[in-house]
Amino acid sequence: MKRVVLCADDYAISPGVSEAIRRLIAARRINATSVMTVFDGLIEEADCLLAAAEGTDASIGLHVTLTGTFPPLTRGIAGADGHFPALSRVVVAALSRRLDAQAVEAEVEAQFQAFLDAFGRPPDHVDGHQHVHVLPVVRKAVLTATARFAPRAWLRDVTPARAALHGFDVKGRLIGAFASGFARDATPFGLATNRGFGGAYDFSADHDFATLLTHFLKGVPDGGLVMVHPGRVDDPLTARDPLTQQREVEYAVLHGEAMPAILDAADVSLALPDGLRNTAAA
Fold first, then answer.
1. pLDDT in tens, 220-233
2. Are 234 and 15 in contact (CB under 8 A)?
3. What is the pTM (predicted TM-score) of this model?
4. How far apart are the first and last CA of the chain?
5. Residue 238, Cβ neighbours under 10 Å: how many?
6. Helix-helix angle 101-119:42-53, to 10 degrees
7. What pLDDT, on the 0 to 100 scale, is given for residue 282?
8. Which residues of 82-100 are buried (b: 16+ CB within 10 A; e: fewer)?
9. How far is CA 31 from CA 34, 53, 138, 245, 273, in A?
10. Which pLDDT score is estimated for 168?
11. Helix 209-219 vs helix 245-255: crossing angle, to nearest 10
12. Residue 244 and residue 267: Cα distance in Å, rounded?
């Protein structure tokens, strides 16, 4: 069976999302989650997650966050409103090499430190909210900080597995273009990455998520990663992120009776591949 990482993004963005992810980890319906460290209450969320993950071998990672309608941990990257900049602004500034490298480095390091303070250990893996970790300028800051704070961690390469693309999949292909050379760039730092990525789709469209998930799981190779965004909608989530009801849809499938059959149909075992297990923090 293929060993695949099924990773829930955005842990700690809201209590409803966090609780849903903990339930899925405890039930072994997912085997990884990525934590946002920019919100209040992180220590309590960390304690609850560690308890839910005990004995499961789940990978708990840092979800580097540089975009959103909420404040960063440091001032340098904040806009005039005190919040992170919009994704479009970060992408344009990164591609034109006009993104403030020092401000990015300071924020990334602050988020690593917040993770260490809350969990008492480095993250098992590192990725980025809205995949910002693969962008120019940000990429260098993330690789450098990971090597410094979590040298045994692995990183998410969002280069799509061809078989996991959904139709022409403009979104998946664009993400993959931004990720060009990411695994190569991680190698000199001694950092491993997953092999193949799936899970990108248009959240606003009317999809059968069970069918999509089966497609993604079948499409990634052994050592691949599929991202998901399960959760329960609550007021903090609605205030912080436009992705709301689709999280409920994903949670229903992941926690539902059909999930074991989905894994069987894809011939997938939710287990860290050896190349990632050997680097994961003890």
1. 999 999 999 999 99
2. yes
3. 0.94
4. 25
5. 12
6. 60
7. 39
8. eebbebeebbebbeeeebe
9. 11, 9, 26, 23, 12
10. 62
11. 70
12. 30
Dihedral, CA of residue 108, residue 12, residue 244 and residue 131, to nearest 10: 30
CB atoms < 10 A from the CB of 166, how many? 20
For residue 218, the one-letter residue type is K
| Domain parsing of the chain, residue ranges | 2-66+124-132+152-277
The CB-side HSE value for 212 (13 A sphere, CA atoms) comes to 23
Task: State the Cα torsion 168-169-174-175 to the nearest 10°.
Answer: -140
Domain spanning 2-66+124-132+152-277 has what CATH number?
Answer: 3.20.20.370
Label residues 258-277 b or e (16+ Cβ within 10 Å = b).
ebeebbeebebebebbeebe
- The encoded tokens of residue 274 equal 């050896």
Strands (E), 78-146: 125-128
The SS3 call for residue 251 is helix
